[in-house]
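Input/output pair, single chain:
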Amino acid sequence: MNYQLVVRICLTFGFFFEFCEGGSAPRFALAQQIKVEADSRYGGVTWMQNAAEYRLLTQQTYRLALAQLSVSFHDRQWSADEAQIVAGGFEQKSPAIILDIDETVLDNSAFNARNIVQGKQYTTESWNAWCQEGQADAIPGALEFVKGAAGLGVTIFYLTNRVDEVKAATIKNLNELGFAATDENVLTLNEAAGRGDDKVSRRALVAEQHRIVMLVGDSMSDLCTGMDVPNTKRRNEVAAEKVDLMGSRWIMLPNPVYGGWQRGLPKAEQALHTKLK
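Output:
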């Protein structure tokens, strides 16, 4: 049998094969066809990677954020951190901003696209491997904003739920894109060390020496507490209470691919509001 011809035919029509030991004939089986369009992440990832609207939206958001920052950071009564506002005594501290990293500063859509193409779901192991690769791109507008903020004399901090294990690779990725990242201003997650995933403890570390004048993220948990609940109604109630802080002290970037909002979704069609009678 002409096995080379058979192999070419199998590859053409979506079969996979493996060669057996001892020179025996290869075994054949029908390969699983991955329909990328059917993946729930497909629309969000393709929008991020291709839509002019996404780029314009993030650039617009960051331009407006810089305009707001250039006015508000002079006001010593101004803080963006709710805990710092309650505690008081921040008026004479130097101004700082805190940015989330993933989907706020770094674009990880290539990681999600890879998973879609390969038919895989997110895992901690694959995510950490991606972080170690250091291949994330910059979110459009982020670098210009950070440079503009630094030019005003505002200290930049990056607060991320990436773990300590990938911190060095994350700093390298950021620096290669032009962000001035260091071991001191990149605050990673370490539950054992008291740096929890709610980010409150790490914002408190910044607040010890700085007046936090702006928070930037793609999730409400980057900005405040009370959002880590698996209930869509409650999350929206909390968000409604905070709406006056949006666009001034708090800046939100779009992320249609993943986030805390997914945990609270009703099941299947119950999450859809059709308004059909």
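Residues 48 and 126 are 21 Å apart (CA to CA). The beta strands are 15-18, 27-30, 94-99, 106-107, 137-138, 155-163, 186-189, 210-217, 250-252.
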